[in-house]
Amino acid sequence: MKALKPLSLPTVLGSAVLLSALCSFPALAGLLEKGRASGLTAGIANEQPYAYIGTDGKATGANVEVLKAVLAPLGITKIETPITDFGSLVPGLAAGRFDLIGAGLFINPSRCKVIGYSNPVTRSGGAFIVKAGNPLNLHSLKDVAANGKARLATQPGSNQVQEAKDSGIANGNVVLFDKDTEAVAALQAGRVDVVYFPDAEIISLVKKANSPAIERALPYEQIPDAQGKPTWNYHAYGLPKNDPEFTSAFNEQLAKLRASGELLKILQKYGYTENELPEATVTAEQRCSL
Questions:
Q1: Domain containing 132: what range?
Q2: Residues 149-178, buried b or exposed e (16+ Cβ, 10 A)?
Q3: 92: Cβ contacts below 8 Å, ≥ 6 apart
Q4: Is the pLDDT of residue 26 over 60?
Q5: I need a labelling partner for 248 at 20 to 30 A (CA). Which of 53, 152, 219, 241 fits?
């Protein structure tokens, strides 16, 4: 049996340097450091008014503008916006295909098990688009469930799917479309009877369609909470679960943006009002614990 040769000093030193680099890698991989060095990727679903590609070929929208305003003071100015289907955003972030989610994303406990969140940026209720004159008289999810045959269109992976189920709408009457514009096209073609999305999205879709054949269903009855008051959903940015330093810095800048009034100014350009600002006391941690 041959004796093992002692390692030379250069080899020992080289191994120590390599080990030190490997041990320090997780700290260097934080999004603050990565963003400042090379920028970040923010997955979007190309949907108005949240995050979409404008006529100039560049990403724009309420969430994109707010994201830039939050990240710039942190020294992060380069943001790439890969586009994917809405239902692929959460799996994409969890799999590391992008650094964060830059689209409008509701905070809900099931998603909180998979990804992290910023604190809320906006709050939102539901809304319907129906055919002109609202022939089925649909003003709430309860109305759709009571009808029994009304077909409701929404998007896979969204809160609206679970809300429809919880309201008693049969699975066979919920028709899913990857793009919100596809749902509107289905309504216009008579393949569904009502389109269900958050109110800001519905406003944008009606404006974009610019068709006398469809309209927003008004009034609309929000889902009530245990006390009978209208419930709100809260939009936030999807963030990695394992980067508390980035999450803390992100939330700090978001709070400053709101306190300065700049957050509302940005949102108002996309049809939001002060009513869509979340209560300052609502946090992602609270919403994830529901």
A1: 126-216
A2: ebbbbbbebbbbbebbeebebeeebbbbbb
A3: 43, 84, 98, 101
A4: no
A5: 53
Q: Are residues 130 and 212 part of one domain?
A: yes
Q: How many CB atoms lie within 10 A of CB 271?
A: 15
201/238 same-domain check: no
The verdict on residue 221 lying in a domain is no
Write the pLDDT tens digit of every residue in 115-145.
999 999 999 999 999 999 999 999 999 999 9
Give the CATH number of the domain where residue 146 resides: 3.40.190.10
Give me the chain's average pLDDT, please. Answer: 90
User: Same structural domain for residues 117 and 142?
Assistant: no
Based on the fold, state whether residues 133 and 255 are members of the same structural domain. no
Sign of the Cα torsion 274, 58, 40, 242 reads positive
Do 258 and 279 lie in a common domain? yes
> Is residue 27 in some structural domain?
no
Report pLDDT digits (tens) over 195-251.
Answer: 999 998 998 999 999 999 999 999 999 998 888 888 899 999 999 999 999 999 999
Question: How many angstroms separate the CA atoms of 120 and 255, rounded?
Answer: 10
Domain count, the chain: 2
Which residues lie closer than 8 Å to 217 by C-beta, 6 or more apart? 127, 128, 129, 130, 134, 138, 139, 194
Q: What are phi and psi of 288, to 5 degrees?
A: -70, -20
Query: Where does 163-244 show beta strands of DSSP type E?
Result: 174-176, 194-198, 214-216, 233-239
State how beta strands 194-198 and 152-154 pair: parallel
> Is cis: bond before 240, omega within 30 of 0?
no
Domain presence at residue 134 = yes
Structure-block tokens of residue 139: 């003003």
Does 173 reside within a domain? yes
Q: How many CB atoms lie within 10 A of CB 40?
A: 22
Angle at 137 between CA 134 and CA 143, to 5 degrees: 135
